[in-house]
Amino acid sequence: MSIINSQIKPFATQAFHNGKFIEVSDQTLLGKWSVVFFYPADFTFVCPTELGDLADLYPQFRELGVEIYSVSTDTHFTHKAWHDTSDTIKKIQYPMLADPTHLIARNFGVLIEEAGLADRGTFVIDPQGKIQIVEINAGGVGRDAAELLRKVKAAQYVAAHPGEVCPAKWQEGDATLAPSLDLVGKI
């Protein structure tokens, strides 16, 4: 069953953000575009490359009014320890959510039950709390923050321009399509 356009499920958890522990819930995500970025575990190999890549582009996401939330099944204390000891993770300015009960990973369908870890799942959520984009990668395959940024821009464009869609490789400023009978078989 597709979770596209489904409402995010309730959750509340602790997060490490800008040197403090804060609470984040499903309600925190409402009213703005959000990216929920699951990764397997702190102190690993591919994960810091992805989180560092997101940290590098975080200002561009913020310019679009998007908040990033990274999530692993580690605790908020572990996130702090990783942040304090890794040069790559020290760059992170977005909230790092703790999911030691596995509720959030289970809610989004990315929990690897037998391992107690999350798959590499990316979810773009609109201001109404509905999932607009889902990407799930195998554990050994890292994601690209620039491509995620492109997809967020496309989702925001489509949301703001009913009746238009963004074709493959669409970049901000490129032509869009207005689906109609006249286009059938002409693309």
TrEMBL record:
NCBIfam families: AhpC. The gene is ahpC. It comes from the Bacteria. Its main location: cytoplasm. Thiol-specific peroxidase that catalyzes the reduction of hydrogen peroxide and organic hydroperoxides to water and alcohols, respectively. Plays a role in cell protection against oxidative stress by detoxifying peroxides. Gene3D superfamilies: Glutaredoxin. GO terms for molecular function: NADH-dependent peroxiredoxin activity. InterPro entries: AhpC, AhpC/TSA, Peroxiredoxin, Peroxiredoxin_AhpC-typ, Peroxiredoxin_C, Thioredoxin-like_sf, Thioredoxin_domain. Homodimer; disulfide-linked, upon oxidation. 5 homodimers assemble to form a ring-like decamer. It catalyses: a hydroperoxide + NADH + H(+) = an alcohol + NAD(+) + H2O. The keyword Manganese does not apply. It is found in: Cytoplasm. Its EC number is 1.11.1.26. Belongs to the peroxiredoxin family. AhpC/Prx1 subfamily. This is Alkyl hydroperoxide reductase C. Keywords: Antioxidant, Cytoplasm, Disulfide bond, Oxidoreductase, Peroxidase, Redox-active center. The keyword Cytoplasm applies. Residues 2-157 form the Thioredoxin domain. It is an enzyme of class 1 (oxidoreductase).
